[in-house]
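Q&A log
Question type: sequence-to-structure
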Amino acid sequence: MGTGAVTIARVIPEVREALLNLPPMLPADEDHGRFRFFDSLTLWLKRVATRQPLLIVLDDLHWADTLSLLLLQFLARECRTHSS
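Response status: OK
Response body:
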């Protein structure tokens, strides 16, 4: 997960449990923290996809909250600019 692991672990606690040697999380303001999480997760997914094909399945998208939709929008925009 690289340097984004700490940021991802802030939102996904299982990451911190799996990677025991992560440094402590620093406090961040909400907007900056959200961008760092979106960016870290997107960069990690891009790295994974360069090694092997990656399929993301979106189940029950109609139930997604606003932040989940913002993440999906960010991911779609970054992947589109990454592939061209």
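Response note: The chain has one domain: 2-83.
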